[in-house]
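Practice problem 4.
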């Protein structure tokens, strides 16, 4: 009789666990994120970088201003991102990058002429990133370089890379 009561109690508990257990409602990866890191690219910019992903779309802002007595260097990049696949540890995406470079030299000991070069680069391609909290990414594509110099622009492959920390 005691064995029957224990068996019946265990069966009732097991039945209760199965009946009241919850099914996971959302197994998708959270697509909204902010990332901060360093980036270097010919068509996406050089320097400190911030990324924001919202569902499948993202934006990346990269910049570094440098100034000394005899030179000034500014790199500013704005990149649009579109996620094709987002898993727990990897992401595959497309990008469209814009990069503005301003390089000024204020002369040297034998000349005081200020020379400023402005370059604008555009590129597109695919990107891949790996990692959970710290993400390494590499982007490969095709770019148009030095578009501010109308007859002297170049069309060449491009490579971009970055290391980001998820906030």
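Answer key:
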């Amino acid at each position: 009789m005691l064995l029957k009561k224990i068996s019946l109690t265990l069966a009732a508990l097991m039945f209760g666990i199965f009946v009241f257990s919850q099914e996971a409602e959302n197994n998708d990866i959270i697509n909204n994120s902010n990332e901060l890191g360093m980036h270097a690219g010919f068509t996406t910019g050089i320097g400190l970088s911030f990324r924001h992903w919202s569902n499948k779309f993202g934006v990346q802002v990269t910049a570094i201003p440098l100034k000394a007595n005899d030179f000034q260097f500014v790199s500013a990049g704005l990149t649009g991102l579109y996620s094709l696949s987002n898993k727990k540890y990897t992401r595959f995406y497309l990008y469209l990058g814009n990069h503005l470079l301003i390089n000024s030299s204020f002369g040297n000991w034998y000349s005081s002429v200020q020379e400023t070069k402005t370059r604008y680069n555009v590129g597109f391609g695919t990107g891949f990133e790996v990692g959970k909290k710290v993400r390494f990414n590499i982007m490969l594509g095709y770019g148009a370089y030095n578009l501010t110099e109308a007859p002297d622009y170049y069309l060449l492959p491009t490579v971009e890379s970055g290391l980001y920390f998820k906030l």
